[in-house]
Design a protein that fits this description.
This protein has 2 domains: 49 residues, Arc Repressor Mutant, subunit A (Orthogonal Bundle); 146 residues, Tetracycline Repressor, domain 2 (Orthogonal Bundle). Helix 1 crosses helix 4. The chain has 206 residues and is mainly alpha-helical. It has 10 helices and no strands.
């Protein structure tokens, strides 16, 4: 039996290197922003050649789009997978809101969102991917609220209205965005206090 000759990497090794590059790019976008990220620095940080990165992502724009899509494609299935059970409706509603809160209150997510939104004027395909992502989130929340309405919750509202309020409160709320710039915001008591404020409002609607 002959040993495999060195040369082109196996499919698994190639996939692992692609993930390594995407991980490094994501960290850099979070820490340095899009403008502060360079392919040269990424190559050095990954211990690979610039050519290895450009072979997969021709430009930094391509890297940003790939990181954004990977991020969104990871989050959406996690949100959809949350259950709505009649005997545990309140627990499941809280789990749903906490999953949204995770998206809205995490500093890494906020930094990535700033990197994405800062380039959407130049990259309309990225803007479209973000639009589709938030449409999917809205549709998922609306479906779950509609299920809860079958169990007697949110009877006074359209499911779409509740979904829009929930998303606005936990993702787009200006107070949350302001707090994300505060270094103390990651302190657990502070985070939980702001979640409790939002949870109280949503419970009142239910």
């Amino acid at each position: 039996m002959t040993n495999r000759k060195s040369g082109r990497p196996t499919q698994q090794k190639s996939a692992e290197l692609t993930e390594l590059i995407l991980d490094a790019a994501e960290r850099s976008f979070v820490e340095r922003g899009f403008q502060g990220t360079t392919i040269h620095d990424l190559a050095q940080g990954c211990g690979v050649t610039r050519r290895s990165i450009v072979a997969r992502f021709k430009t930094k724009d391509d890297l940003l789009v790939a990181v954004a899509i990977r991020d969104m494609e990871t989050y959406s299935p996690q949100l959809r997978a949350l259950q709505v059970r009649q005997e545990r409706c309140w627990e499941d509603l809280e789990a749903l809101i906490r999953k949204l809160w995770e998206r809205g209150s995490n500093k890494k997510n906020a930094a990535l969102l700033r990197a994405y939104l800062g380039e959407t004027v130049r990259l309309p395909h990225l803007a479209e991917a973000i639009r589709v992502f938030y449409y999917e989130i809205s549709a998922t929340i609306e479906e779950k609220i509609a299920e809860m309405q079958l169990y007697g919750m949110f009877r006074g509202y359209k499911a779409s209205t509740v979904a829009a309020c929930a998303i606005s409160l936990v993702i787009s709320n200006p107070r949350i965005r302001t707090m994300l710039l505060d270094p103390a915001f990651e302190e657990p008591v502070t985070v939980e206090r702001y979640f409790t404020d939002i949870w109280t409002l949503i419970r009142a609607m239910a």
